Automatic annotation (TrEMBL):
Species per Swiss-Prot/TrEMBL record: marine sediment metagenome
Annotated Gene3D superfamilies: Aldehyde Dehydrogenase, Chain A, domain 1, Aldehyde Dehydrogenase, Chain A, domain 2
Keywords, ordered alphabetically: NAD, Oxidoreductase
Protein name in UniProt: Aldehyde dehydrogenase domain-containing protein
Annotated Aldehyde dehydrogenase domain residues: 22-486
Length: 490
């Protein structure tokens, strides 16, 4: 089957993917899937329920022992199969993703390419896992032999958000399958279409039945029963703090393993030795990419007072040059927000900014928005008080808040003064200085003189309220493995 087959059953997708079959949901409720640029419904998916979850978990439980027994090298072939099949469907997936999500084509391409790189990376990790089984541990006690094994956690529930559907699901599914886990994947009900292609691919590459089950539905119908299902050994969740905390509480009731990738309010520090025009490019990339709907958006700008005016001028120039429009048009820089709900949530922060009398460098008054679509103007406030909710809370839209600082120490102190700790960027003319500053920041990913550079080999995850655990790299695989020792007389 091809992506177009997903797009076809996209018009009415009232089935669930369980045990390698599209089966009727026990729910008759449907959810609308929108094109946020045209404000039109492009599909309806089933609002699945607890009975669907139960069937999917049973399928995954049945499939798990044989999938584990296959060994890493055999599982790697399927992971490479996912990567090859995604690559073969590149154009149609990018179009589908831009249509459902509202992200410009180039950004939809990044979502897909990063997902492909992730499947390929974990194919290699799966092969390497075989060689790590039964490694001898060096122990001081004489006459004892101890060996280490890495067993899969078991059946995993994977819950994704809507902002980067392909990559956020790949970061979970690829290491889970590499480890020997079987999965129930729940895409976001806002952007299910790109992830549904994974079911077509599972059939095409002959993935054994029950290894990947994919359920459509909302948080209440699928997310909550998946999290509380006794057959789920681990939940890996990416999304908001509000839901992530509920997931953690639910999992705690049966001491189930959880990984959480949550929100962020990441800082970007522009030091006095930075070239303000070059820094402006990094600042722009850190906040207006995907219309600011990115967990690691560097949405708090801390700029040294010596370069603040030059930086704001360069930013205003760049913001005026942004083209807002059809995500499918090649020259579009910023698409609409992904949903009316998200547009309204961001608008509430813009209203608050007006009430607080924040100073804007650029906002909705500086441009005319397209007549249709969930658009908001790229916005930049300067001199934002640290007490403002706009400074402290994740807005998840094209809104940048700036403050001037008088010293490196003040920049570091303010950067760390946040409930979150997902990422941070340091821009300096001296890269050694930028690295040194970066070491003092409490966040999982620190970029210096670059932005949003995420590679499959390097860890992804947050300090503080940004989450628990790490995805990507060997750490991402460990999240789906249990370490076991076999020990006795030599
Ligand atoms: P969300 O929390 O509203 O939804 C995420 C997923 O959880 C969806 O699939 C949703 O259906 C499901 N869900 C809702 N209620 C549930 C429940 N009670 N139990 C289980 N699942 C439930 O988040 P969102 O709006 O889709 O995504 C935006 C958020 O995701 C932002 O806060 C962003 O920072 C975060 N995010 C984090 C990362 C990261 O890597 N740290 C990456 C992307 C997005």
């Amino acid at each position: 089957m091809s992506t177009s087959s997903s797009a076809q059953h996209a018009s009415l997708l009232d089935k669930q993917f369980i045990n390698n079959q599209w089966v009727a949901s026990s729910s008759t409720r449907l959810l609308d899937v929108m094109n946020p640029y045209r404000e039109e419904r492009i599909a309806q998916v089933t609002a699945g329920d607890a009975a669907d979850v139960d069937a999917a978990v049973k399928a995954a439980q049945q499939a798990q022992p044989a999938w584990q027994a296959l060994g890493g090298a055999a599982r790697a072939k399927y992971l490479d199969g996912f990567a090859d099949a995604l690559e073969a469907r590149r154009d149609s997936i990018i179009t589908l993703s831009a249509t459902n999500n509202g992200k410009p084509l180039a950004e939809a391409g990044i979502d897909l390419d990063d997902a492909i790189a992730c499947y390929r990376y974990y194919a290699k990790q799966a092969k390497a896992l075989d060689a790590r089984q039964g490694e001898l541990v060096s122990v001081e006690m004489e006459g004892v032999e101890a060996r280490t094994y890495h067993d899969p956690v078991g059946v995993v529930g994977l819950i994704s958000p809507w902002n980067f559907p392909l990559v956020t699901s790949a970061w979970k599914l690829a290491p889970a399958l590499a480890a020997g886990c079987t999965a129930v994947l729940k895409p976001s009900e806002v952007t299910p279409l790109p992830e549904l292609v994974l079911a077509d691919i599972a059939l095409e590459i002959g993935l054994p039945s029950g290894v990947l089950n994919l359920l459509n539905g909302d948080g209440e119908g699928i997310g909550a029963p998946l999290t509380s299902h006794p057959g789920i050994d681990k939940i890996s969740f990416t999304g908001s703090n509000r839901v992530g905390e509920t997931v953690m509480q639910t999992a705690a009731a049966r001491t189930a393993n959880v990984s959480l990738e949550l929100g962020g309010k990441s800082p970007i520090l522009v030091m006095e030795d930075a070239d303000p025009t070059q820094a402006a490019d990094w600042v722009m990339a850190g906040i207006y990419f995907n219309a600011g709907q990115i967990c690691s958006a560097t949405s708090r700008l801390l700029v040294h007072e010596d370069v603040a005016e030059a930086l704001y001028a360069a930013l205003a120039e760049r913001m005026d040059a942004l083209t807002l429009g059809d995500p499918l048009a090649e020259d579009t820089d910023l698409g609409p927000l992904t949903s009316a709900k998200q547009r309204d949530a961001v608008q509430r922060y813009l209203d608050l900014a007006e009430q607080e009398g924040l100073t804007s460098v650029r906002d909705g008054q500086h441009r005319t928005l397209p007549a249709k679509g969930y658009f908001l103007a790229p916005t930049l406030y300067r001199d934002v008080p640290v007490e403002s909710r706009l400074w402290q809370e994740e807005i998840f839209g094209p809104v940048l808040c700036g403050r001037s600082v008088a010293s490196e120490a003040e920049a570091i102190q303010l950067a760390n003064d946040s409930a979150y700790g997902l990422a941070a960027t340091v821009i300096s003319g001296d890269s050694e200085r930028a690295k040194r500053i970066g070491r003092q920041l409490r966040a999982g990913s620190i970029w210096y003189n670059s932005e949003q550079l995420v590679l499959p080999e390097t860890a992804w995850g947050g300090f503080k309220r940004s989450g628990i655990g790490r995805e990507l790299g060997p750490w991402g695989l460990s999240a789906y493995l249990e370490v076991k020792h076999v020990i006795g007389p030599a």
